[in-house]
């Protein structure tokens, strides 16, 4: 069983493309469930400096999760090297990270690893109902990670 209580995972990096929809939600969901860990997010093609997507922010807010003060960051090999675990939204994100930084191979897993490992689609520029569906998928995947990473006591 993967557990943060063994000290293996203290820093988690959540990655998507633009770092304005999926990864900010994943970051905030995990941070709420695992407050003892350091959880951040980035994008492999980040809209650097942008806040969270307005539609996703509204969906998250309606479900009690704030994306306020989020600022998109570009993924770097250094950032990846500082993380104990890198959670990506799609298999292609893993391939992209490993192409540029093969040394990170053992750290990269899918955000929905425990929920089918099919990947979580990008809702960017889609209607609110798509964002709502993606938020639900992210919540379920975050719950599954939290169950595995929570300290056992």
Please supply descriptive tags for the structure shown above.
Rossmann fold, 5 helices, alpha/beta
Major sheet description: 4 strands, parallel
- Total number of distinct structural domains: 1
Number of helices: 5
Order of helices and strands: EHEHHEHEH
Q: State the distance separating the first and last CA atoms.
A: 14 Å
Molecular shape: globular
CATH fold topology: Rossmann fold
Any idea what the radius of gyration is? 14 Å
Q: What is the CATH C-level name?
A: Alpha Beta
Short description:
With 153 residues, the protein is an alpha/beta fold. Helices cover 39% and strands 12% of the residues. The chain has a single domain (9-144), classed as Rossmann fold.
Account of the 3D structure:
With 153 residues, the chain is an alpha/beta fold. It has a single domain, classed as 3-Layer(aba) Sandwich (Rossmann fold). Helix content is 39%, strand content 12%. The chain has a four-stranded parallel beta sheet, with helices on both faces. α1 links the parallel β1 and β2. α1 packs parallel to α5 and α2 packs across α5. The mean pLDDT is 94.
């Amino acid at each position: 069983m993967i557990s943060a209580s063994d000290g293996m995972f203290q820093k988690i990096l959540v990655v998507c493309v633009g770092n304005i929809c999926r990864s900010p939600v994943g970051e905030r969901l995990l941070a709420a469930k695992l407050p003892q860990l350091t959880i951040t997010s980035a994008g492999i093609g980040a809209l650097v400096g942008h806040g969270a997507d307005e539609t996703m922010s509204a969906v998250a807010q309606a479900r009690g999760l704030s994306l306020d003060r989020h600022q998109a960051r570009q993924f770097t090999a250094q950032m990846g090297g500082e993380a104990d675990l890198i959670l990506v939204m799609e298999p292609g994100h893993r391939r992209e990270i490993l192409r540029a930084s093969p040394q990170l191979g053992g750290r990269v897993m899918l955000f929905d690893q425990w929920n089918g490992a099919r990947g979580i689609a990008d809702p960017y520029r889609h209607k609110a109902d798509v964002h709502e569906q993606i938020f639900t998928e992210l919540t379920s995947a975050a719950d599954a990670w939290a169950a595995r990473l929570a300290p056992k006591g």
